[in-house]
Amino acid sequence: KNQVEQSPQSLIILEGKNCTLQCNYTVSPFSNLRWYKQDTGRGPVSLTIMTFSENTKSNGRYTATLDADTKQSSLHITASQLSDSASYICVVSSGGSYIPTFGRGTSLIVHP
Amino acid sequence: DAGVIQSPRHEVTEMGQEVTLRCKPISGHDYLFWYRQTMMRGLELLIYFNNNVPIDDSGMPEDRFSAKMPNASFSTLKIQPSEPRDSAVYFCASSLKGQGARNTIYFGEGSWLTVV
Q1: Which sign does the torsion angle of CA B16, B57, B61, B22 carry?
Q2: Can you tell me whether residue B85 is helix, strand or coil?
Q3: Could you say which of A22, A25, A101, B36 would form a disulfide bridge with A2 (CB–CB 3.0 to 4.6 Å)?
């Protein structure tokens, strides 16, 4: 069964600090992995999309990594800001279908 | 671009009533998705369309749920009759080439449904 597990479930950090969110998946065959940011009361917004051959992709202060061998991805946030407070969702799509598998998300709170 | 537009943003209805959620995708996008998000289950894909044709509705929870896309600029998700367990946020999203390709999926702001 395809699964996406995210950790930690929630995280509280101080403004200016860095943090790393984890995503482990068992989706097969692998097509792509996406990280979304979802602000409270809003729809998810795409941060990065990574395919099998990509190890790292950056979007401003957000850097996603992918290890297709261990089926792990991480999202690193540098110099966190209050606006980074949100839920971060990892989504993995299978090459065999268009149906994605969603993680439950990591809730990040950045305190001043 | 106005993005994906959903209506209503919030709806409170009584159990047994019919609920219709509406979506206008981004112009030119040929894929449209309906998702449901709850605290218990997170985000779930209910159904998706390609060029107005339903491709996979395996995520639709039961026969009380139906979705249509009569044209490229409009889709509806209908729940009849509604039940309290249908309370959730329903998102519509659209993209140019679906979810298997390296393309961005754009979500609407969601329709917050409460069934009492």
Answers
A1: negative
A2: helix
A3: A101
